[in-house]
Amino acid sequence: MNRRMILYMPMQIIKVQALVMLLPAAISFFYREPCAWSFVICAAAALAFAFLAGWLIHPENKTIYAKEGFVIVALTWVLMSILGAVPFVLSGEIPRFVDALFETVSGFTTTGASILRDVERMSRGLLFWRSLTHWLGGMGILVFFMAIVNISDRPIHIMRAEMPGPIVGKLAPKARETAKILYMIYIALTLLEIIFLKVGGMSLFDASVHAMATAGTGGFGIKNDSVAGYSPYLQWVITVFMLLFGINFNIYFLLLMRNFRAVRSSGELWAYGGIFISATAVIALNLRGIYHSTSELIRQSAFQVSSVMTTTGFSTADFDRWPGLSKAVLLFLMLIGACAGSTAGGLKISRVLILLKAIHREFTKMLHPRSVTVLRLEGKTLDEDVISNTLTYFVIYCIITGGCFLLICLDKFNLETAVSATVACFNNIGPAFGAAGPAQNYAAFSDFSKLVLSAAMLLGRLEIFPLLLALSPVTWIKK
Amino acid sequence: MNIIIAGCGKMGTALTRILVKEGHDITVIDSIPRKANDLINNFDVQGICGNAADSDVLEEANVGKADLFIAFTASDELNMLACFFARHLGAKHTIARIRNTDYNDQSNTFIKQTLNLSMTLNPDQMAAQQMFNILKLPSAMQIETFSNRNIEMIQIKLKPNSPLLEMSLSEIRKRYKVPFLVCTVERGDEVYIPDGSFVLRAGDTVGIVSSPADIQKLLKKFDLLQKQARSIMIMGGSRAAYYLAKKLSFIGNSVKIIDKDAARCRDIAALLPSISVVHGDGTHQELLYEEGIRSMDAFIALTGTDEENILLSVFASSIGVPTVISKVNSEELSRIAARLGLDCVISPTKAVTDLVTRYVRAMDTTAGSKIETLYRVAGDKAEALEFMVSADFRGKEIPLKDLQLKKNTLIAGIVRDRKTIIPAGSDCILPGDSVIVISAGHHYRTLSDIIK
Q1: What's the confidence (pLDDT) of residue A375?
Q2: Which of A467, B168, B261, B414 is 20 to 30 A from B118 in CA distance terms?
Q3: Do B2 and A173 touch (CB under 8 A)?
């Protein structure tokens, strides 16, 4: 195992992160906020440390394999979460480190669960930093770094470990080109949303903060009522863009390549649209008594469905007070998530499709023991390795959900809160039900629960395997 | 450049490794998912699983934007078809591997023209040519020819009793009065591009450039000249064996091919009536003795498996056959073979990858002096390149001693009007010359690149 490279890569990312921190610092200086200095101090210290450490451990051999890829990604994410929390503590606006860590992990993993009781009192630089963590975490900071420099001769292993979905393919022969294409699409869509929000009357600051939080499917708002206070037009803009960022980015690439046939035949895209429309319809029917005008009824249900299924976590209504059926639908949407290859969390629709197809095949096998079936997805034959990997993933996913739930139950909350908070954090949504509902926050949880939930968020964003492999002794023992 | 490689076998993989290192955008196609996956995991390439002659697969590989399409699948016919389609869908150049002997006679030109191929590759024939060169000059481990055989580079291993030891290269040159240049020295894992003060040691493998006639003289003076091989035993009736035996019997050598497949033996006997074909298992030593291995001038292992070739060659050297050549395709195994004391290892893969690399670099050059020949020498750590000098070369008409060359770069030979010049400091390069450049650690595309 290439230990030098495993330590060296996170140092490189820390340098990038430190430079990125100068952006919120500039905004704080612009608004003459005292927290600007906490960014500068933190960035300077991080840069100094990373340069020293990077110089000391500079690897001769930059070859990495799958194992190194997993460990590099896991280590990078843990370190950058810790570094990202420092400005909150230094500025004194989130004085306790556990709270700041929870907030940062929630940001990078694009969860959007907050411990802030009063968001509106935060300074603008820190609010911007919160949203920026969403934006960087959404597409992946290592992929961002990959677009700038050549990091290794086998970058696919890092890309696979950081990007969500059962199959990670390249759009161009070189990983660096692929990373560039992905970030181009990402930046273009984000700018487009900023323009649409600006047209609707938001200030530039509000528009960029919300656009970044939508792009990463994060969901940190800057108002205590999330986006409920904004006009219906703005809410619709956010609804549509949340849906757009939940789509596999390969689809946008295919559109750019004018390959419309492949887009039309994408099974995942159809399933995604179908789930959105049917869930909106069920919830709208269920809520008929609560909202009186049809337009509000449709807007409220579409916004909440879009927000939850893309695992963003904005809200325009306190869906904790909705009837049981609507809440149950939302809970299922949390588990499923959006498309693979997007910035969203959850199980991912393509995994659900693979699981359903595998179940169907097992049933066919029981009825016709000699039948031979090959599973196909997006017009391609699925490798048996992918199927068994998906099944394993689902089992581990269930075990971790169960384990986290048990640990959260040690806290003082009822069953609904414990279940939904676990699901909402592990699948990177943010607001849950009960004491963690959209009108509440995670401040009331104990430190232990916050740490458990932070771990769950990281596990969810990195799709379990990188963190588990980095922690398992088998990876580290020399044989 | 955008390059698509169809077929991820031994050759496809070796070529991918080299072209990725040269910085090209590679897409690989293979019908077996595991093979495509192996390449994706090991190199920064895009992989597509499917039939290389399926237009959908080709479209997915973005063949319309490809500068070069190379077909290396196991089947000649599939390679031809894939190249034909690729060309129609917009690939600028196509290269197909065509191995079957039926397609490699006069019909080869017809195939190239009809399918609009840029080049066809026949690795077995190339390997056979290399072995043939060595058999004509058996003291060399490897022979590379440049510029219509006006200049050659040979590699020899220095034995402890060699007269070249303990002297600097400039002293050696003074003593022997034959124009030649020592241009590479391989010592252990290191490769040196030596200057005049370099001192050779026993065990070094040195590369020497000179004209073919002078090389004969040199080897005589170095006490290295072995007589040309006359009776040759070839183990394995592969295609390479067929090409080699054909060449050897044509110039009147006695050739004996041993193969364990009766049908294959009959085929070869029918194709080449003048050689003797023996049906039997070459791994049985009794058979080899019976067929007179002890009295052979050369033993060549050309079976289909690298491991078998290595073992057979080790055995042949141990009983004292003067020249032993083995065909080893895998890079890792060649290194092991060298460690086992086999000096003469020929790899069809290397021959093919050298040729394609040369072609790709020449394609990449729009103006200036193009590469005519490329060989990887000294354990693939150095390159011997031949350039045709064009009028825009920056260093023309400047004495070589005034040219500021990059590190580890040497001008080893100039061919002017079919005359070979082993250059000294006062010589100049003129437009129209062919220039041989030896370099380590660079990937030169045009001749002007060698100047600082």
Answers
A1: 87
A2: B414
A3: yes
In this prediction the pTM is: 0.85
Considering only CB atoms, which chain B residues are within 8 Å of A146? none
Q: Check CB contact of A156 with chain B, cutoff 8 Å.
A: yes
pLDDT computed for residue B367 by the predictor: 63
Q: Contact A319/A327 with Cβ under 8 angstroms? A: yes
Residue A304 confidence (pLDDT): 94
CA distance B43 to B36: 11
If DSSP codes are grouped into helix, strand and coil, which group holds residue A109?
Answer: coil
Among chain B residues, CA nearest to A169: B46
What's the complex ipTM?
Answer: 0.80
Which tokens sit at A266? 């994408």
Nearest-by-Cβ selection for B44 from A65, A153, A169: A153
Predicted local confidence at residue B218, as pLDDT = 84
Does this chain's domain B2-121 share its CATH topology with B364-450? no
Which of A68, A156, A375 is the mutation pick for testing B, counting most B CBs within 10 A?
Answer: A156
| pLDDT score, position B382 | 86
Out of B2, B27, B44, closest to residue A156 by CB: B44
Q: How far apart are CA B395 and CA B417, in angstroms?
A: 19
* Nearest residue of chain B to residue A170 (CA atoms): B46
CA angle A113–A119–A120, rounded 5-degree value: 155
| Residues in B touching A172 (Cβ below 8 Å) | 25, 46
CB B93 within 8 A of CB B363: yes
| Distance of residue A51 Cα from the nearest chain B Cα, in angstroms | 27
From the list A154, A174, A177, which residue is nearest B41 (CB)?
A154
Inform me whether the C-beta atom of residue A15 falls under 8 Å from chain B C-beta atoms.
no
Mean pLDDT by 10 residues, chain A (479 residues): 87 93 94 91 95 90 86 94 94 92 94 90 93 93 88 84 81 89 95 95 94 93 89 94 94 90 90 96 91 91 94 91 93 92 91 94 91 84 88 95 94 91 93 89 92 95 90 78
Domain segments of chain B as ranges: 2-121, 231-346, 364-450
Query: Cα-flanking dihedrals φ and ψ of residue B180, to 5°?
Result: -160, 170
Pick the CATH number of B364-450 from 3.40.50.720, 3.30.1360.10, 2.60.40.420, 3.30.70.1450: 3.30.70.1450
Q: Which residue has the tokens 């399933």?
A: A271
Is the domain defined by B2-121 classed in CATH 3.40.50.720? yes
How big is the A-B interface in CB pairs under 8 Å?
Answer: 34
CA distances from B439 to B16, B38, B77, B191, B387 (A): 22, 32, 38, 10, 13
Which parts of chain B sit beneath pLDDT 50? none
Check if A377 contacts B (Cβ < 8 Å).
Answer: no
Residues of chain A positioned with their CB less than 8 A from the CB of B26: 173
Looking at the domain B231-346, which fold is it? Rossmann fold (3.40.50)
Q: Is the CB of residue A384 less than 8 Å away from at least one CB of chain B?
A: no
Whole-angstrom Cα distance, residue A270 to residue A268?
5
Q: Is residue A219 within 8 Å of residue A429, measured between CB atoms?
A: yes
Q: Spell out the residues 6+ positions from residue B436 whose beta carbon is closer than 8 angstroms to its own.
A: B146, B147, B151, B153, B209, B384, B385, B386, B411, B412, B413, B414, B415
Rounded to whole angstroms, the Cα distance separating B323 from B224 reads 13
